[in-house]
Design brief:
Radius of gyration: 19 Å
Order of helices and strands: HHHHHHHHH
Structural class: mainly alpha
Shape: globular
Number of helices: 9
Largest sheet: none
Helix content: 55-70%
Strand content: under 5%
Oligomer: single chain
């Protein structure tokens, strides 16, 4: 499972929102498929630029993610470095492309169901559920014990006087 980061959660929500607002979605298009739409949100590349970069490698996003080399500065490598920086792994990229991570599917609104990778509405549901899963993981690591919350002494006095 991806590393829960605010950047990734925001990117997943932005991708869902962009799709909901009419962003082009085509599973057979590297720049407009599930991963392509996420890459657009993360990098600000256009779908055409992503398609061009993806064609420097071989295969679908799943194969490209497994084969990428983090030591070069090729555009496609930069894309994968960015996805890795925000918390994704090659396995996560595979699951995003196929809408297949069981943990995410179990958090879908309305309960578990299998999704179709080429259906825009399913991609939206998956991105939103993935964001919720990661948000829950992130919240589990926030220490909100009262003794860790400090208020300057003069603010305590003012609050008590009012």
């Amino acid at each position: 499972m991806a590393q829960a980061t605010i950047e990734l959660i925001n990117a997943l929500r932005l991708t869902a929102d962009n799709l909901r607002k009419g962003a082009y979605h085509s599973w057979g298009h590297h720049g407009a498929c599930n991963c392509g739409n996420l890459v657009q949100s993360v990098t600000q590349f256009t779908k055409e630029e992503i398609l061009e970069y993806a064609h420097t490698g071989t295969g679908e996003w799943t194969e490209l993610a497994i084969e990428f080399c983090p030591t070069t500065n090729a555009p496609l490598t930069l894309v994968f470095n960015k996805l890795e920086q925000i918390g994704l792994t090659p396995t996560d990229i595979h699951h995003i492309e196929y809408l297949s991570d069981r943990e995410v599917l179990e958090q879908l609104s309305g309960g578990f169901r299998w999704l179709k990778r080429n259906k825009k509405e399913d991609a939206i549901d998956y991105f939103e559920a993935f964001a919720l899963v990661l948000e829950d993981k992130l919240l589990q690591h926030i220490d909100v014990r009262l003794e860790n919350i400090t208020v300057p002494l003069n603010q305590k006095i003012l609050a008590t006087a009012e």
